[in-house]
Amino acid sequence: MTLAEVREKYLNYMKAKGHEIIPSASLVPENDPTTLFTGSGMQPLVPYLLGQPHPKGTRVANSQKSFRAEDIEEVGDNRHTTFFRNARQLVIRRLLERRTARLVLRVFNRRK
User: Fold this and answer.
1) Which sign, positive or negative, has the C-alpha torsion 61, 67, 69, 73?
2) Sheet (strand 20-21) strand order
3) Which of 20, 61, 73, 97 is the most buried (most CB within 10 A)?
């Protein structure tokens, strides 16, 4: 299975479970003077995590482009990457929901 197929399978599964699929935000965050790059993938969602309503609702999923530089000297081995896609789903205002973990585990562990 290619990375694109993994990403597509994940997003299709989350959509089937009632999540709206949102596009990946820019690697350079808009209107955020606190960081140069989207590092963890959460920066684009900060306004919604702080209470602003998200235009797509409270259940969203995406594959966010992210850039990691804190250990840039180590990049190149099998544990350190600089650019990656962070597949995630989020239930805004209910981040620590047990259902969230179960959904993610079921994406690739479903019996056929």
Assistant:
1) positive
2) 20-21, 59-67, 83-91
3) 61
CB-CB contact of 24 with 64 (8 Å):
yes
Helix, strand, coil percentages for the chain (3-state, nearest 5): 30, 20, 50
Domain ranges of the chain: 3-109
Q: How far apart are CA 49 and CA 18, in angstroms?
A: 19
**What is the tens place of the pLDDT at every residue in 27-66?**
888 888 888 888 777 788 888 877 888 899 888 999 988 8
Q: Which CATH superfamily is domain 3-109 in?
A: Bira Bifunctional Protein; Domain 2 (3.30.930.10)
Q: What is the pLDDT of residues 52-102, one digit of tens each?
A: 888 998 889 999 888 877 766 766 666 666 777 777 777 776 654 556 666
